[in-house]
């Protein structure tokens, strides 16, 4: 059996809204005419508005394998999954298959679904209608840290 692709937190937490601290951004309260640019930083930065279309059906998971490295998804990356999205052939999905949670690109055929990894060490998973397969959602966003080169690479 292959290791699970995902770490699913015990509790699903979406990012909380919070306002920006004006002093942190270098703005000081004025006693005269305020700069019009200050108003742009008073609005809360809310990633939910950017990545969530259906709050009740959206959750995040952490990738734990490199099975999708060809899609630039690596172990440690965070994925936003929307369970309300319709799955179509070619979609990147989260599913229960082959005894674990998987992130794969799905190919829908007549009576079978094929889950494709993007790493040569992970063979396709063939899911029959009566088999051990459950669709959980469509991957809508992937968050990953920027590449950090070593001193030798600089």
Tags for this entry?
154 residues, mainly beta, Umud Fragment, subunit A, 2 domains, 8-stranded antiparallel β-sheet, 8 strands
CATH level 1 name of the largest domain? Mainly Beta
Main sheet attributes: strand count, strand direction, barrel closure: 8 strands, antiparallel
Return Rg in Å. Answer: 21 Å
Order of helices and strands: EHEEEEEEE
Domain Peptidase S24/S26A/S26B/S26C: 28-139
Protein name: Peptidase S24
Pfam families: Peptidase_S24
Offer a quick outline of the entry.
It comes from Larkinella humicola. This protein is mainly β.
Give a verbal description of the structure.
There is one protein chain. With 154 residues, the protein is mainly beta. It has 2 domains: 33 residues, no CATH class; 92 residues, Umud Fragment, subunit A (Ribbon). It has 1 helix and 8 strands, in the order βαβββββββ. The longest helix has 5 residues. The two termini are 40 Å apart. It comes from Larkinella humicola. This is Peptidase S24.
